[in-house]
Hints:
Blueprint (H helix, E strand, L loop, with lengths): L1 E6 L5 E7 L2 E6 L2 E6 L11 H5 L3 E6 L2 E6 L6 E6 L2 E6 L13 H12 L6 E5 L5 H8 L3 E6 L2 H13 L7 E5 L2 H11 L5 E4 L4 E3 L5 E3 H12 L9 E6 L6 H11 L6 E10 L6 E11 L1
Parallel strand pairs: 1-16, 4-5, 9-10, 9-12, 10-11, 12-15
Antiparallel strand pairs: 2-3, 3-4, 5-6, 7-8, 13-14, 15-17, 16-17
Amino acid sequence: xxxxxxxxxxxxxxxxxxxxxxxxxxxxxxxxxxxxxxxxxxxxxxxxxxxxxxxxxxxxxxxxxxxxxxxxxxxxxxxxxxxxxxxxxxxxxxxxxxxxxxxxxxxxxxxxxxxxxxxxxxxxxxxxxxxxxxxxxxxxxxxxxxxxxxxxxxxxxxxxxxxxxxxxxxxxxxxxxxxxxxxxxxxxxxxxxxxxxxxxxxxxxxxxxxxxxxxxxxxxxxxxxxxxxxxxxxxxxxxxxxxxxxxxxxxxxxxxxxxxxxxxxxxxxxxxxxxxxxxxxxxxxxxx
Length: 288
């Protein structure tokens, strides 16, 4: 089944407008303008509204930079789905969170809460911890793995900000492929496995990740670290080169022996100015 998971306006997040290759968002009381290749339609709001943004990201060739108002601090905090995140204006145009993932976090929380047993979660390519925190706050034991020390440090900060310092989260800086191989050898098992692989990346020691070469081998290993009665496997994609249908089919192949069902689709954010849906990524998820 192909579906769309839609993120709506919330008190501390809003997609104000989009168009002409850009998006205008509000995080708390900070308004950002930055590129988005999916927004190919005309803008709804006048240009003066866009120019009033507190921070504007512009790209020149392969590089980019933020132009900020004097009032914008180096970092600020926002509350999304009762979790608190520290945001920063990063050179990549990103800020440390993908708000469209909130629908996935809620799905995971509901899945864990409905289970009458302890749940172990492995979060691979875990970034700044949104999914890890969502799972941990409803009682799951989480192993959070990312090759970026910066991202893992920020995930730990978000855990503290969210009042989850006593949550059962193990933070690990490592190449995901090497970590999975070691877990197989150690015989460790997980009830839920989450993956959000980039198109291209580098491991903790410079190991190169290319999605077209490395995704399928990783998926083929996942079954070896799933528990006897696993609950779910989630595969997310941001600018992943592939379609949601492709993700759904490769995930179904990887976990076929466990039965269950696979759904797939797009993650989108609803725009306030015109009600349009801005596509922000794809997903596939298996559940038992």
